[in-house]
Amino acid sequence: MPDHPYANLLAGRKVLVTGAARGLGLAFATAIAEAGASVAMADILGDRVEESAAALKARGFHAVPLQLDLNDPASVQACASAAAQALGGLDGLVNNGAVTDSGGRNLTELDVATWDRVMNVNVRGTWLMTAACTPALRASGRGAVINLASDTPLWGAPNLLAYVASKSAIIGMTRSLARELGDANVTVNAVAPGLTLVEATEYVPQHRHDLYRNQRAIQREQVPDDVCGAVLFALSDLARFVTGQTLAVNGGFVMP
Questions:
Q1: Catalytic entry in 6, 163, 203, 212
Q2: DSSP code of 199?
Q3: Distance of CA 48 to the CA centre of its chain
Q4: Is-contact 205 195, C-beta < 8 A?
Q5: What family does this belong to (predicted)?
Q6: pLDDT tens per residue, the chain (256 residues)?
Q7: Whether residue 203 lies in the annotated active site
Q8: Are the C-beta atoms of residues 46 and 79 closer than 8 Å to each other?
Q9: What DSSP character marks residue 196?
Q10: Contact of 29 with 39, CB cutoff 8 Å
């Protein structure tokens, strides 16, 4: 197994990552494994998550693929239970799974079905997954939850209303959950990436990419690896007294 700069940061940890078949979720799962943790990788894309986990296992890491539909409460509970059983407990949860769906439509073009799907997956799914993992996280004694928010609520991105509203809710939920779980030394923090070059953002028009790049303090495109350090930090003992916080990782596009 090749050396890695964070090779021992999460040694012995057991972490569940949702939305881990591709994009940011896969980058997180890979970085977490490279940092020494065992990782359960959950996604609705069953074949794709199997392939992604197999690639990590081929490198000598402990990676377990799991099926997950965040729009189905029974699936969420089954996934959390399977992850804890497969890994022998849980020390960390990365709530990355989400849908955008509402991109490109203004408030009058947005339909109720799309609004409900975004809220059910992004907000309700995050709540249900955190609740389902709470017993294992409390038992850990060093549990950490990382909720993937977005910097879109921090600047009010237009024509993305349902997604922005859902990620605003994630930020608020993070603070409330931090207070609810702090008695068990479980930290809960949010990471809010900017527009990142992944498959899920391929629909974003070029002018939006240009807006981000040109108005960042660090004027370049954002890639998945740019976000991994914040997630590793929040999962590690370096952040044991950091909770209820939202860390914007966007090259200085917004500075909350």
A1: 163
A2: G
A3: 17
A4: no
A5: Belongs to the short-chain dehydrogenases/reductases (SDR) family.
A6: 446 678 799 999 999 999 999 999 999 999 999 999 999 999 999 999 999 999 999 999 999 999 999 999 999 999 999 999 999 999 999 999 999 887 778 999 999 999 999 999 999 999 999 999 999 999 999 999 999 999 999 999 999 999 999 999 999 999 999 999 999 999 999 999 998 877 776 667 787 788 888 899 999 888 999 999 999 999 999 999 999 999 999 999 999 8
A7: no
A8: no
A9: B
A10: yes
Distance CA 188, CA 180 (A): 10
Q: Is the dihedral of CA 198, 169, 41, 5 positive or negative?
A: positive
From residue 33, how far is each of 1, 2, 28, 63, 88 by CA, in Å?
11, 12, 9, 8, 16
Write phi, then psi, for 247 (nearest 5 degrees).
-105, 110
Question: What are the residue boundaries of the structural domains of the chain, listed by start?
Answer: 14-249
The pTM of this model reads 0.95
Buried b (16+ CB within 10 A) or exposed e, 201-227: beebeeebeeebbeebeeeeebebebb
Distance from C-alpha of 34 to C-alpha of 206, rounded to nearest angstrom: 33
Span 14-249 CATH architecture: 3-Layer(aba) Sandwich (3.40)
Q: Which DSSP helix (H) or strand (E) runs through 171? A: helix 161-181
Q: How far is 147 from 245, CA to CA, in rounded Å? A: 10
**Structure token digits, residue 240:** 């044991």
Residue 46 to residue 236: CA distance in whole angstroms:
29
